[in-house]
Amino acid sequence: MTMPPLPADTDLDLEPDADGELDAPARSGIQSIEVGFRLLEVLTHTTGPMMLRDLARAAPMNPAKAHRYLVSFARLGLVTQTPEGRYDLGPFALEMGLVSLNRQDPMRRARPAAAALRDEIDHTVGLAVWGNQGPAIVHWEEASHPVTVSLRLGDVMPMLNSATGRVFGAYLPRAQTRSFIQRELDRIAAQGESADSENPELPQTLEAYDAICADVRLRGVSRIHGGVLPGINAMSLPVFDANGQLCLVLIALGAQSTFDTTWSSPLERRLRLAAQQLSADLGYVAPNAPQC
Q: From start to end residue, where is composition biased (Acidic residues) (predicted)?
């Protein structure tokens, strides 16, 4: 979404400051923008769409005043309204978030590495980060034989039955991921036995998910067989920053007929090496790495 330029004769109402510089308005700011931003801040830190009354209360702001801001934000694509009348972040907010993420140093380093890995293994390679809604896809490199997937940039991966979600579940603090995990467990419980038959790899309890996360930490790799996308295998691996914190997840996926998820297979070894190299490029020193 591209914002139109200001007309050439627009009056910017610039006043020189004490030093004769025309930057006083930049320092004083526009209060109405700062007030309206509180609504966007609330939506950024919540876990889902909100009713107007709840959003206004959290801002805090009069509902009628909040509605006027939301109308303008909706016109700009910063917010959107669901069919149920709830408000959520809109497509332009997502676009800004993705652009910002891609300008961060880890992403700048990871994108060319992902492209090179895709060229070498000829499977689709992606990158994910932790967002306010959970694990979010922020970069894709399609293989020469692209698989048919319904995932798009910005899509949020499930915690329980995606290789990517399990990596975040394994390495992020549980306080950060608990609400997302529990929400999916509650959904499974509401579905009853049908969830078991549709996906036998899907954990039904927190204890079962904890066991999966422990295995991911032990192996340093998460794999899934058609969990999110029927007929598609995937492997995801953690990428750590210089502080030893999980900053990215490296994803590779392909058709089950060609994507080998066997432990210690050539593909698994190459993905592991790629994740380790990317972590090292970001300044991470593995605990068992030789010291210089």
A: 10-22
Q: And the tokens for 11?
A: 């009056």
The pLDDT, as a whole number, for residue 197 is: 52
**Confidence (pLDDT) at 151:** 72
Q: How many domains, in total, are found in the chain?
A: 2
Query: Which pLDDT score, from 0 to 100, does residue 10 have?
Result: 41
Domain range for residue 256?
104-282
Beta strand segments in 120-256, E = 124-131, 134-141, 222-225, 232-240, 246-255
User: Distance between CA atoms of 251 and 128, rounded to whole angstroms?
Assistant: 8
User: Are 127 and 249 a contacting pair, CB within 8 Å?
Assistant: yes
C-alpha to C-alpha distance for 93 and 99, rounded to whole angstroms? 10
Q: Is 244 found in the same domain as 189? A: yes
Q: What residue type is 141 in one-letter code?
A: E
Coarse DSSP helix, strand, coil percentages of the chain, rounded to the nearest 5 percent: 45, 15, 40
DSSP string, 224-247: EESSSSTTEEEEEEEEE-TTS-EE
Which helix (H) or strand (E) is 87 found in, with range?
A: strand 87-89
Which tokens go with 205? 């309890």
Considering only CA atoms, which of 37, 253, 257 is closest in space to residue 128? 253
* Two structure tokens written together for 177: 């991921």
Say yes or no: 134 and 277 in one domain: yes
Residue 290 has a pLDDT of: 42
